[in-house]
Amino acid sequence: MKQIIYLILALNMFVCKGVQAQEKFNSIKDTILYKDVSSSIIMNDVLLVKHTDWDSLFSIPEHPSFDSEMNDTISKKILNEINKRKHSIGDTLCTSDIVYCWKPYFEWLSNIDPHYSVSLIVPSKYHHISKDHKEIKERKDELINLATTLPVSLLNINDTILIQTSLVENLKKGDIISKVDGIPIDSILKYNFSDRHITFMALMNFFYFKGVNPKYRLDLIRNGKPINMEATSNVNTYLCMSRLDSEESTESSRCFHEYGAGYIKLPKFYPNNSRLFKYVYKEILKFKDAGYKSVIIDLRDNPGGSGHFIENFLSIFINKPEIVISKSEKVKVSKYTLNDNKYLRNEVIGQLVEIPNSQSSIPFKLNHKYFIDSIKFYIMMDQGTASTAAAFCNIVQYNNGATLVGEPLRRNAYLYGDIIDGYKINVLRSCLLKPDAISTTISELYSLAEDGILKPDIYIPYIAKQYSTGDDAMLFQLLWNISSDKEL
User: How far apart are CA 94 and CA 98, in angstroms?
Assistant: First the structure.
């Protein structure tokens, strides 16, 4: 009885209102209950008791493409898979179960636009859930200060989970995780998405909010040998993630003298990229002065960010006065985009409207004084390269400014522009789940991509065995190619 506590009237009211906005997402027979979740803090998960099948998919009219890409055949196929998964679980679904059921639709949405992803709102007894989740957002810091987690980031290579960065002393880069608290990793991945890079906390939170515990029992494979250990962390989630972000999200450079190459890691772009541009420009000139003929720019796991100063970055690689990067740029008009674009009017809400050239990047002016010659540039990318970083890869490849190396980007990773916070979009309010971002603009870009997939000029795949040593196999494969003076 303690696991299922009681129905909360306020929550029930908010869910009923959410039903009307979600095209009958829940039937009137649905009930919302609370369930205790054992963790380093006392948490309550939301249980959806649903006796009927889902008969419709929620729509996102604020997005420029989702509705136009959907049709009855696709909708029926996705709903059949959703309800098939529901039948395998039963009528009572935790948030993790709802994620599992609705993964086919989430994956379809992110295949159209990788900006769309979902994350979990970690619940707490300290939170009252309102219809717009304001209390959850406002009390987030309180929750973060109470919960602990492991400061570890992971690499997912064909469902083999390896440690990429660890601030826990006894967990090593390259360790393969086979079980967590006795749970096989494939059972955990069933509730997760196939992201290339993920934090340990995010991985475990999708599995019934197990990501905020102070202690875990891990079954690992290290150097080909199985080992068992207990990993603990007494640091709260905010500090864990802050330290991990600091470890991974600081740009850095290295000299590979024996390969005749310089290397610059750019983990992200900023709202103001002037400092970052000066850093990159200065480092490349250092490499050139040292006699290096090759420079590697690493944009793997770069989620993008602002396009501020992007014309200066491109000027380093492309020796042209200007370039045209897109044929057209369009915005989906909604209440969220109306106020940000003065040329839009109320009467066009719901329409996809072309952005005037005066407000877009057509054409794109470059600055010749920043062009650096006598250097061959290589840009590393992977499925974690997104948004502005993905668009950057697309532009330099199309204009022969650099050689792309790594694996193909996610479909349409370079295509969409401005976004709005997913908190503003009313979808799946019957669980502790939120979309992270919704794109509002779409560009018809000049590109060498095929079916929306931007491919590298030099394909170097991720291979789990190579990364289990703790080395960066893709980087060293590229360096070997450079030093061997092969035709790339």
Answer: 6
